[in-house]
């Protein structure tokens, strides 16, 4: 059964399933954060169906917005000053609940934290040091485990900066500490882990790239961070040197593991130094949010992201949300800025229907600028189609 009739349930009053509506979108990148998207959708729903309880549960997949998502679900936000990707201090947040911490690399070491546009110089010198400082800050507040969301990084330093902040020394052949950035790794001679802060880490990432080679951190993602062909070669050489010295000094051979290439090799450092496990980002974040409990008894789940396209089908947030809802036999519809997926592709991903801003406003620039009001308009259409007539109408 598909379409609005899928929301019906026999025995429910008026033919509609009793219960609430869960609004669980990811961000609309460059336009609205996930909490903002959820708020606009909720406003549109309530305008048409004020009698239907609405639960907002903005989500993320480990990249930008991960801390915001778990804070909305009950984690407590903490802010501290850390080094940005070029060493300039930035105010960055992490979240905690009990002894569990959620840290988002993009908060400290993301492209959005660069004080300038990415260039070849920044690609060679950007560091993950601030991410390690966030881990130390969480540990100082009592964290005994860390979920580390990887995505949107500015660095290709193999996670060396993160580990320097956690007390590991990376030394050249004169026992001098290496400076920050992936280019410096070509001079690595030995590693000293004697003062390392050890915190159990689970990496939240959908990236399955290895550290090295044609699918590795430097060759795939380096150009996106400003690296020219020669710079990519230098970064690759540095990462290969790091992997060789880590295997010699630590006995860790994890460069080929899926996820080692995430965030410029920060995934590799988490695996090699911290013994991390890697899990799909959205799956892990939904567990932290107790999302399955929020869906239980719902009549409809609304998810979405800026663009519903082929990448969505490879473990992005809307598909993760839809899987949880499908397990509870709750229908799912999606909203997006634009979509290129067919109805059949959506249904195979457990999404009954998708609504795009471009359906009501063909100009993409207007969609970006007026995303909030357009989302409320679409939410009103969804309420009318999927939630039935208002008891107050």
Automatic annotation (TrEMBL):
One GO biological process term: organic acid phosphorylation
InterPro entries tied to this protein: Glyc_kinase_flavodox-like_fold (IPR018193), Glycerate_kinase (IPR004381), Glycerate_kinase_RE-like (IPR018197), Glycerate_kinase_sf (IPR036129)
Lineage: superkingdom: Bacteria
GO terms assigned for molecular function: glycerate kinase activity
Keywords: Kinase, Transferase
Protein family membership: Belongs to the glycerate kinase type-1 family.
Protein name: Glycerate kinase
